[in-house]
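User: Can you model how adenosine-5'-diphosphate sits in this protein?
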Amino acid sequence: MTLDSSVSELRGVGEEVSRKLEILGVRTVADLLDYVPRRYDDYSQIDEINKLKPGMVTVQAKITQATGRYVRRGMHVTEAIASDDSGSVRLVWFNQPYRTNAIKAGKDYYITGEFGMRRTKLSILNPSAELVSDFPVNTARIVPVYRETKGLKSAQIRKLLREAIPLVRNLPETLPEWVIEQYNLMPRSAAFEMMHFPADAKLLAHAKRRLAYEEVFSLSLASLLNKYELLQKKAVAISFQEKLARDFTDSLSFNLTDQQRKAAWQIYQDLAKTTPMNRLLEGDVGSGKTVVATMAAIMAVEQGFQVAFMAPTELLARQHYQTIQTLLKPLKLTKKVGLLVGGLKKSAKQSMQKRIKAGDVQIIVGTHALVQEKVTMQNLGLVIVDEQHRFGVEQRKSLQAKAEFMPHVLAMTATPIPRSLALTLYGELDISLINTKPQDRKPIKTSICSPNSRAALYKTIDKELEAGRQMFVVCPLISESDSFPAQSAEQVYEKLSSRDFKHRRVGLLHGKMKAADKESVMDEFVRGKLDILVSTTVIEVGVDIPNATVMLIENADRFGLAQIHQLRGRVGRSSHQGFCYLMLSDSTQPSRRLRALESSTDGFALAELDLEIRGPGAIYGTLQHGALDLRVAKLTDVKLIAAARSGAQAFIDHQENLLHYHELHERIKKLRAVTNLN
Ligand code: ADP
Ligand code: MG
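Assistant: Here's the modeled complex, given as structure tokens:
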């Protein structure tokens, strides 16, 4: 057997167990060794029987003959007595008839189970029992608990690992020897062994630290390599022209906030350099990022460069197009703005492409498909990417016409990325933060609602609609689904338009509709021709409709915190009070997570909380195409992160050749594509 052997070569793994392991992502022995426990139970403390207290206990005792019998309604009970020097205790198993024969009377066992009341007698209930040895698996030690699947329990996974564990010796080391020494790390194979079969708490902590270090080290190294690669490239310098910046800000109907000013200034400094800008403009929904991005765009346009402005959806591209045109009107630059999206007629598209090629259009607004469309830019100086989390060197290359220059890139996101995560994952990026909102906004009032108060809620909402405001209803599904019981946009649209709000104008919007239909529904909503828009999360980012003040999110418990926070940013974008109602799937108690949304409107605080509760994979997983895989490292472990980042920097400073580290190299290749946020 080798690391690459199929798990089916392990004893007791037939077709069925294979299939279950596959569900857990485990195919080979190496996968099994790599299967990280979710948590641990500490059963290493052996108790004396006469001192047992209710709760989980572990004893070392001789077991008398076990006897089984069927009691009422087919329930089977096995009973035995376990005795040590201090006393005896009854063991009881329910519906495990095989125990009767499995127990070897008179032998010494480790027994771990719940000490509790059975009928009127204290007993150890459903215990694990194994013969005393120097390598217990399920008892008398710190025991790992794995993510399980139906019919495959941790005890079974441990048993398989017990057989496979000698092979950890073959696991290759991934980190350079000097890193292991300098940062006092456990060798990799030892760390995996201790992770599954920890000798004690201290060694377990040491093992976890090693594995966590490796995760953060790899991410940091990938991100640093991206950064240095980019620093080798040349970009065109777009110099700062004070008069233009002043003319623009003077023409706005509002004053920029201090943070908008600061962000714009940082961007202007980057643009003036001959190395490509790689900056992330991070700001909560409605914080005014678009204005700042436009300030960057005009500087490039003024000096004869083209700007590509990319949005995640066609809807948003159109909206950005409108916004930018409005913002540029006083400067008389509007003729230079063009829209290029898939929904355009073929002829319109072609003529736009021609104008772009001729340099007639200088700000090209489109979806991310701009990268794929056969657009030839004259002189691309700046790329602005809204809410897109992958725009790397490859994407830059495909957009640029002349190979000698890399465009500057400004990415914008409303997803609050906690600092710890940003440093680890996006260490290559410079970050500008806008975390204050324009003053005249009232914080959105968020309330959790239970389905049995729906009628009352609709009455409350109708008062807002009566006053001329509009409402979004967001559903997790487009159509009804058997496999995922939740409200669908189609169903809800049906109910609201024919029953609950039949006196109002209701529209439906979702991702499966034709582009033209989507557009016309959205347009009606924008123009106030609809009171209610039932939709899916397609409205998630960027949509700006100041008169929409109410948002109702169905099955709110099915959404992530960060996602709901983004969604509710669609309302309360004016001086009217905004309301967000979080409708639960059923009448059970809302989670701590959801309650946090009621009390906090701080996107960063919510993201930190989401990170703590669900982990980075769950929150950023979709953005990262599932590859962000911190299984052991905790982003709250500041010391470890600092050590791993300094190790990665040292790796580069030592001019280590990644090719000498095969495993690490493979991992880094994958990660580089991921960390390329922008
Ligand atoms: P974001 O892209 O960050 O979600 P936007 O740039 O779309 O936010 O801005 C939201 C709204 O706030 C827009 O209508 C914009 O004109 C307005 N706005 C932006 N900056 C300010 C400001 N400093 N004061 C008042 N309103 C502003
Ligand atoms: Mg926006």
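A couple of observations from the model: The pocket of adenosine-5'-diphosphate (ligand 1) is lined by residues 254-257, 260, 283, 285-291, 414, 438, 544, 573 (CB under 6 Å). DSSP finds 22 helices and 21 strands in the chain.
User: Helpful, thanks.
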